Amino acid sequence: MIFIMTKIEFMRESLQINAAQKHAGLFGLVTLFLMFVLMPGVSLAVSPVSAGSNVETEAEQVVIPQVYRRDVQAPKIDSQDFDVSIFLGFLSIEDFGSSPVGGVKLSYNVTEDLFMQAAFAVSEISDSSYRRFGLNVFPDETESLSYYSLSVGYHLFPGELFKGENFAMPGSVYVKGGVGSTSFVNEDHFTVSLGLGMRLLLSKSFSLGVEMQDHIFENDVLGENKLTNNLELSIAAGFYF
Q1: Distance from C-alpha of 212 to C-alpha of 196, rounded to nearest angstrom
Q2: Closest by alpha carbon to 176, among 141, 149, 138, 203?
Q3: ∠ at Cα 105 (99, 107), nearest 5°?
Q4: What CA–CA distance (Å, rounded) separates 15 from 61?
Q5: Is the predicted pLDDT of residue 88 greater than 90, yes or no?
Q6: 142-155 and 114-126 strand pairing
């Protein structure tokens, strides 16, 4: 009887131990499951904080440069200003050689880029090269020539011309075109003028420029009516008011 009771007690203790081990194993599995589920969330929650702290640290280390910027204005010719230019150069009349030319121009600057211009000039035309062969084309060997034109121009490239590091002159490259008349030997020839020039503003009221023009008109002095291209190269001094 005592043996039977002892065996029953031993079996009861064994069952309790096994149950405790099962509970411990189940508890361990539950613990591992919770760690597997919860730890990524914890790491994700912590990571932004650490990243944010790193960004703040880096932001605190950035040096903000102190840059002082100047207000720079592109040099341009004032609108609604008149200017008068006196020019000198050479005019080449097709078939009759080149002669000095001089004249005056009056310009009105409609805008900073667009301008209108009236010009008048005087020169000479000579048939000396034909007289060598006994041909008198004109009554006199040298005849006076004059022309006038009305043109519209546009400043293509306003900017500055630099000389060294501390010297700059504002100026522009421009094109122009117009119509007018060329007169010599008591005849008037309708003329189309096309030009390209560059102007430098030495001050607000004074400028220097160089210009190339082509005066296109029909000429029948040699007995054949033909369209001629007559080139002019000149330099000009301008005054603004």
Answers
A1: 5
A2: 149
A3: 150
A4: 67
A5: yes
A6: antiparallel
Phi, psi torsion values for 108, nearest 5 degrees: -125, 120
Determine whether 119 is exposed, middle or buried from the number of CB atoms within 10 Å of its CB (0-12, 13-18, 19+): buried
Q: What token pair was written down for 206?
A: 């004074």
- Determine the longest span between alpha carbons in the chain, in angstroms: 170
Q: Give the three-class secondary structure for 116.
A: strand
Q: Quote the CA–CA distance of 216 and 229 in Å, as a whole number.
A: 5
Q: What is the pLDDT of residue 46?
A: 43
Which CATH architecture describes the domain 82-240?
Beta Barrel (2.40)
**Domain assignments of the chain as residue spans, ordered by start:** 1-67, 82-240
For residue 174, give both structure tokens. Answer: 């421009």
pTM: 0.66
Q: How far apart are CA 74 and CA 206, in angstroms?
A: 18
**Closest listed residue to residue 130, CA positions, set 93, 95, 92:** 95
DSSP state of 223: S
User: 202 falls in which pLDDT band (50, 70, 90)?
Assistant: confident
Q: What is the mean pLDDT of the chain?
A: 77
HSE, CB side, 13 Å, CA atoms: give it for residue 99: 19
For residue 165, the SS3 value is coil
